[in-house]
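Supplementary Text 2. Reproducibility record for the structural model of the 150-residue chain.

All settings were left at their defaults, and a single model was retained for analysis rather than an ensemble. We include the record here because the model underlies the residue-level annotations in Supplementary Table 4.
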Amino acid sequence: MRIALFEPEIAGNVGAVMRLGACMGAGVDLIEPLGFPWDDRRVRRAAMDYIDHVEVVRHSGFKAFRQARAGSRLVLFTTKATQSSYDFEYRPDDVLLFGKESAGVTDAVRASVDASVRLPMRPEVRSLNLATSVAIALAEALRQSGTLPG
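Retained model, structure tokens:
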């Protein structure tokens, strides 16, 4: 299973997702442009020494990402979806896609994914933090697919 971040804007979130990927055995795809310099020390601070235990692949844009991950099912997590992420059946080779913190994904990206799901939350709040959303989604996807680390 892989995590894909579409044009992430906050270095600390990317570092936290990289650490999560290392701990849970999921690779991380970063779809550029990034909203911060890649050598940003905040990424390394959040990822800590876990950065050496996760496969991170940077893609020059969404088209390059789709070409690199052709054949994998792309599951978008978005507040615009109607299907609950808990009612979706995950597969071990899924790529879980998350949009940028300020705006999610473009309409073109949304139209090109294989499935869209939402993390249920109270209606009076807008959204979860990106790294928190990824952690909730990845844990459920790994649990369902029987691939949680031992």
